[in-house]
Amino acid sequence: MTAAEHWLSIVGIGEDGWDGLNGQAKRAVGSAEVLYGGARHLALVPTAGSSATRIPWPSPMAPAVQQILTEYREKKRVTVLASGDPMLHGVGVPLTSDLVATEFRVIPQVSAFSLACARLGWPMAETSLVTLVNRPVEQLLRQLYPGQRIVIFSEDGSTPATVARLLTESGYGASKLDVFENLGGPSERNITASAAIWPNEQCGKLNLIAVLCASDATANPLSITPGLPDDAFDTDGQLTKREVRAVTLARLAPLPNQTLWDVGAGTGSIGIEWMRLHPSCSCIAFEARADRAARILENAARLGVPNLKVIQGTAPATFASLRSPDAVFIGGGVGNDDLFDACWAKLFPGSRLVANAVTLQSEASLIARHTIYGGDLMRMMVSRADPIGGSYGWRPMMPITQWAVTKP
Ligand SMILES: C[S@@+](CC[C@H](N)C(=O)[O-])C[C@H]1O[C@@H](n2cnc3c(N)ncnc32)[C@H](O)[C@@H]1O
Predict the structure, then answer these.
(1) What is Dmax (Cα atoms) for the chain?
(2) Per DSSP, what are the bridge partners of residue 8?
(3) From the CB of 111, is ligand 1 less than 6 Å away?
(4) How do residues 127-179 score in pLDDT, each as one tens digit?
(5) Which residue's CA lies nearest to atom 27 of ligand 1?
């Protein structure tokens, strides 16, 4: 191997096996010194003409990925077989994330996502892709809208029945499910039924699910625009109300791939709405009380962001060793100087902090910090129309003082 050569090839392979590979992919397999792949994929590759050491993926795969990157890097010609397009929720992603582009070559095959859209005549760019491989099924809930097309990568043969149940319980029992087993191979099979009457508790292990969402009267489609109705959350009252929540999220200004710390999270509504904005948004909610921490997790799962992380305990002690967030919201403990100092110390330049105060004492802390750190102070006084006798009158809510600042 010369310095100019890449040492790692990642070859996408479909259910049509060796016959479906192009010349470049076949050469990458033929010239490998070490060949990694799932047992199913290795069995699809002829042994004739290859002297490679064949290594089936162990379970879990992560240690083997590390071994490839440390033991073999630039020492051996390694070829890895992966299903479909290796860069679409495949092993190509962790293998290449820390390499420079000259070290590897990815040779993609048609992905199962493409094949499903091809079978159904669905426009790929208008179809959502969700993977449930090693992920909680509730993340699907964020994607449910009437008319929405979703392709789901399954964990295993029980995933279609689990998805059908979740859809039915959420008011989407009328959705049409197409399960495709072994797409692109000789044993390809398609099963079609609505979620409410899904017939198969077990499907083939290798399957994906295409869902055309249709709602019934019990469905309650929720927008991803911040400011969900207050009753979308189960709460003991520690809830940032809808109007204030919408403004708070606007000031927190989430972007894809960013992380929020929701400090003193209460019901968890700020972190949940942050995460609903984009599948790559993440949040750590810090909450002292165990009952509230449990409720935050329940709300997060029900609202389609089951990956929200809750750290129960007294902040800021619970911040230790965590990576800096992109934004911090302080909803509880605004008057606590140690808490603020720890949040501020964790932020890097350009990241945002937003704090809301209800009491005069906590408002005084925000005003004092505004004097030192700058930023914007504002006050919200929201009134909602409420019935009085046969008419309506304005019922004022407690005024909220908000301080928003970007770390210089
Ligand atoms: C980790 S993802 C990898 C997807 C792959 N990178 C691709 O482009 O097709 C694995 C999941 O993809 C789906 N899948 C991959 N190949 C498939 C096939 N031939 N037939 C049906 N589903 C398939 C299954 O849901 C499986 O659990």
Answers:
(1) 88
(2) 78, 104
(3) yes
(4) 999 999 999 999 999 999 999 999 999 999 999 999 999 999 999 999 999 99
(5) 154
